[in-house]
Structure formats: C-alpha cells, structure tokens
C-alpha cells in the first residue's frame, strides 16, 4: 500500500498530456507505432489514473464515503498497480501483454457512470448541496475518464483489431442506430414508439469517435421521447436536423414536449437531477437492454462528451411548446482533448 501511495504522490503533480485525438488516432498502424504508443500510454496512464484517484477522493458532500465511490476508488488503485507493474515495452509480445492489461482495466471501470449515479442518489436530498460545485467536480472527473477510455480504446482497437477508434463517421447512420435503440426501449416501456423524423444529407460525415456521437445524440433524443410521452404528445414529431458548417457539424434535436422554464436549465443539466430516478442494480448493470432514462447523469455527461473534443451543447426551452437542443461537433482535425 505504501508503494502505491508513493506512485500516486509522484504522478498527481504531473500534468496530463492533452492529445490531438483526431489527428493522432487516424494514422497507419505498424509494429513500431504500437511499441511507441504503448510506452507513451504506460507513463500517461500512471498520471491520469492517479488524477482519477485524487478527483474521487476530493469529491464534495461526503460522496467519497459512499460505498459506490469507495469501491470505484479502490478499483482505480488496482488499475494503477497493474499499469505500474509493466516494464518498458520492446516488442510485439510486450505490446500484446500490455494491451491485455488495458482490456481488463476497461472492463473493470465499465460501470463507473452507474456507480457515480447511485452515489449521487444517496446525497441528492441534502439541503447544502451546491449544484455548481458538484458539477465542477464531476465534469472534471468525467472529462478525464473519457480521456482515459479513449486512450485505452485506441490501444485495444489498434492491437486487437488493427484499426483506429477515430473513423469516418456518417452522421445519418449513427443517428438511425440511436433511433432504433430508442424505439426498442419505448416499445417496452410505453408500448408505443415515437415519431422521429431524421433530416440529413446522407453524405455528411466527420472524422470522429462513433461511440461519442451515438451517446450524445442518444441521450438528447431519449429526453425528448420521455417528454413527449409524459405530456401525451407522442403523435407529434421529434425532428433531428443536421447541417455542416465551416468548423462544425451541427445537430438540432427539437420536440413538442411543452418545454420548461428557462430558469430550470441549470437544474436539468446537473448530475443529481433525474425526472424519473431508478436504482442501478448489479442485474441492470449486466443487461444489454437499452435504458430510456433515470440515471441522472445522461444530459450533463452528453455535454461533457461534446466538450471533450472542442464541441458543445446548447439547450433552448420554449415554454408550453417544446425544446430545441443544438449539438456542435468540432470537425477540425487539430482539436485537442479538453481535460480541464
């Protein structure tokens, strides 16, 4: 234990190295590339995992004392120990062994969002919670978590599948995949499916991480669907429009779910807000069934995903009519990780 404490102390004072993900992870893959990437990743993960442990320990409002955050912190310590045990990577065998370690780390932290959500549910009714303070801490944690998973994902994808995680993404295909999953959830919960119109030139594409686009679009659209069914507006369409600008791909999701007062935007974008909270059980964690809502972290986390590579999300509620959400995805290849 003393050794891991020293490792953490040594690394938390070092800054992370923000990467040009799109440019860096859209390159030809060869053996020397994998060796260099592995050695860089070993050092960088020691820093970033140490930061994760620090961030979890420093969470406010007693969150570090909850079982969920305590367990999550311990799992990061285990992961840091595993990375630290690896020596310098010199050949393809070393690369494969190191990648197996990273695969186990990715699997170990798969349910971190659920763990954070459940811990927040335990403190959300405390009167002293400051939404801005909590959001600041969790934004930082999730931004760097996304960064860690992106780096690990690139290593696993390039070694195990000989491909990069950054791909030529056709936006329409990703949106249609999201709509299909939402229809499954809606049919199960409401015994009906929403009327979703997708208006986009099928040729619009972007070099990006497909899973990030899917997550962002899926979370925003799910909220529109819930609003429609909750307000008996399921016959009215939810419109998803996409346009391409000089620097951004812009996705507009608009609904007729009656909207909400503008003063509630900060509440809706907070991590402890959920219109229909559910408890995340081990059984639910293991299922592949799409969840329509209730985690409480979906909207703020979608915004963090967009900001990770220089984009953003803006919400425009039109009270007694509906809500418009604008998603900006930076399409410039020089976009740098946002880890602040």
Automatic annotation (TrEMBL):
Belongs to the PDK/BCKDK protein kinase family. This is [pyruvate dehydrogenase (acetyl-transferring)] kinase. Its EC number is 2.7.11.2. InterPro entries: AK/P_DHK_N_sf, BCDHK/PDK_N, BCKD/PDK, HATPase_C_sf, HATPase_dom, His_kinase_dom, Sig_transdc_His_kin-like_C. It catalyses: L-seryl-[pyruvate dehydrogenase E1 alpha subunit] + ATP = O-phospho-L-seryl-[pyruvate dehydrogenase E1 alpha subunit] + ADP + H(+). It is found in: Mitochondrion. Keywords: ATP-binding, Kinase, Mitochondrion, Nucleotide-binding, Transferase. GO terms for molecular function: ATP binding; pyruvate dehydrogenase (acetyl-transferring) kinase activity. SMART domains: HATPase_c. One of its GO terms (cellular component) is mitochondrion. GO terms for biological process: regulation of glucose metabolic process. Residues 210-333 form the Histidine kinase domain. It holds the Pfam family BCDHK_Adom3.
């Amino acid at each position: 234990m003393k050794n891991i404490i020293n490792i953490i102390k040594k690394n938390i004072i070092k800054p992370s190295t923000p990467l040009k993900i799109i440019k860096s992870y859209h390159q030809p893959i060869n053996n020397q590339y994998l060796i260099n990437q592995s050695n860089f990743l070993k050092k960088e993960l020691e820093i970033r995992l140490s930061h994760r442990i620090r961030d979890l320990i420093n969470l406010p409002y007693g969150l570090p004392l909850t079982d969920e955050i305590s367990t999550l912190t311990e799992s990061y310590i285990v992961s840091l120990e595993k990375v630290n045990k690896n020596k310098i990577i010199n050949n393809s065998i070393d690369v494969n062994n190191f990648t197996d370690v990273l695969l186990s780390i990715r699997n170990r932290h798969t349910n971190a969002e659920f763990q954070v959500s459940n811990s927040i549910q335990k403190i959300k009714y405390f009167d002293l919670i400051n939404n801005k303070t909590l959001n600041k801490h969790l934004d930082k944690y999730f931004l760097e978590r996304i960064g860690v998973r992106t780096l690990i994902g690139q290593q696993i994808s390039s070694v195990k599948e000989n491909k990069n995680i950054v791909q030529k993404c056709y936006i329409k295909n990703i949106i249609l995949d999201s709509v299909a999953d939402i229809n499954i959830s809606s049919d199960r919960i409401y015994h009906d499916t929403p009327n979703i119109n997708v208006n986009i030139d099928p040729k619009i594409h972007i070099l990006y991480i497909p899973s990030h686009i899917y997550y962002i679009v899926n979370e925003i659209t799910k909220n529109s669907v819930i609003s429609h069914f909750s307000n008996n507006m399921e016959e009215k369409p939810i419109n998803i429009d996409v346009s391409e600008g000089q620097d951004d791909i812009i996705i507009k999701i608009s609904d007729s779910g009656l909207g909400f007062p503008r003063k509630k935007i900060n509440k809706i974008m907070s991590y402890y807000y959920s219109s229909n909270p559910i408890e995340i059980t081990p059984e639910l964690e293991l299922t592949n069934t799409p969840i329509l809502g209730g985690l409480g972290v979906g909207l703020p986390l979608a915004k963090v995903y967009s900001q990770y590579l220089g984009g953003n999300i803006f919400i425009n509620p039109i009270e007694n009519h509906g809500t418009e959400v604008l998603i900006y995805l930076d399409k410039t290849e020089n976009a740098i990780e946002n880890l602040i």
